[in-house]
Amino acid sequence: MTCPPAKVSASIKAGPRPAAPSEVAPSEAAPFETETTPSFGAVRRALVRAHAATLLFGVSGLFGRLCQCSASVLVCGRAGFAVAALALVGLKKGQVPWRGMKSGDIVGLVLTGVLLAAHYVTFFMGIQVGGVAVGTLGFACFPAFTTLFESFAYKERPSSKELLCLGLVTVGLVCTAPSFSLAHDGTAGLLLGVISGLAYALVTIANRRFANHLPSLQTTWWQNVVTAAFLLPFTWWQFAEVRALDWLWIACLGLLCSALAYVIFIDSLVVLKARQAALIITLEPVYAIVAAWIVLGDVPGLRVILGGGLIIGSVLLLNRR
Fold first, then answer.
1. Is the pLDDT of residue 8 over 60?
2. Is 13 helix (H, G, I), strand (E, B) or coil?
């Protein structure tokens, strides 16, 4: 579902969640751009890594659908695995994530970590209630929320293109909704996905401040620590009842869809331009829907295809220069 805070483009995911008007899920630091032109082979390998990371981000919804435990237990466990894996990555790179923190940064990371927990819980609730397609497409509108919130937070007037994209996202969500009654599982799942996107947009905007002076790995690690700590008091007694198979899916979410996806995606940003990465991340809902179709037999209906096309198309337009 969501990727790590990465400074990617004028309105894409940040993750577990992102930074400036350029994040990709969900919250990473801005990669430096080399002055020499990368070789064709290097670009090709970077594209493969970026698409592989996007696929891993996308199939997080699939693992969430397969998991039979509650969304809060799933998210708490996933965050725990991600914390351990990212700590090992940081130690290997010589970046100890719990060192060199200022009190002001810790307060901000605690607040965004709680928002990240809300994002993940509502995202996986949407997946479990309404299915992978509608839950993922509901979340996919988060760049539109980011644009809207940034215009208020930084007193930046939205451009005509941004307003057009907001309108297309709205129409896309209306088309995707199977019913206008919240009693319908599909509509409830879509609404939860939208709420998830809203929470992630707030995390993305907040991460703009961190991206200027904190490594993305450190930001992501702290936010996952807060997510796990925040949810643990509400979930600890349920862990004994989690099935062994569910622990496998939770581990996949934490190790593959969070830590591994984070590492290979950030690695690709050394070669790829921010705009290229933003466009690739936009394909996350497509990978999620295709994976659910193949593995679960969830065939997307015409309304989902039409609405999803409008939502994804608006995000592509938003990231186009």
1. no
2. strand
pLDDT at residue 3 in the model: 56
* Domain-embedded: residue 184: yes
CA angle 89, 92, 96 (to 5 degrees): 75
Q: What is the dihedral of CA 69, 71, 76, 77, to 10 degrees?
A: 40
User: What is the spatial distance between Cα 74 and Cα 1, in angstroms, rounded to a whole number?
Assistant: 13
**Residue 2: predicted pLDDT:** 55
Pairing of strands 23-24, 6-7: antiparallel
- 303 in a domain, yes or no? yes
Q: Yes or no: say if 38 and 46 are a contact pair by the CB < 8 Å rule.
A: yes
Task: Report residue 47 as tokens.
Answer: 């594209």
The residues, any chain, with a CB within 8 Å of residue 91's CB and separated by 6 or more, are none
Let me know if residue 1 belongs to a domain. no
Looking up tokens 């989902």, which residue turns up? 304
Q: What is the model's pLDDT at position 239?
A: 94
Q: Is the pLDDT of residue 238 over 90?
A: yes
147 lies in some domain: yes
What's the chain's average pLDDT? 82
pLDDT band for position 102 (cuts 50, 70, 90): confident
Cα separation, 201 vs 205, in Å, equals: 6
In this structure, what DSSP letter does residue 256 have?
A: I
φ, ψ at 18 (rounded to 5°) = 150, 180
CA distance 188 to 320: 32
Residue 11 domain boundaries? 6-318
Q: Residue 42 is which amino acid?
A: A
pLDDT value of position 274: 62
Please state, as a whole number, how many other Cβ atoms lie within 10 Å of the Cβ of residue 285: 26
Q: How many domains are contained in the chain?
A: 1
pLDDT in tens, 21-44: 344 444 344 444 444 677 888 888
Q: Phi and psi for 23 in degrees, rounded to 5? A: -115, 160
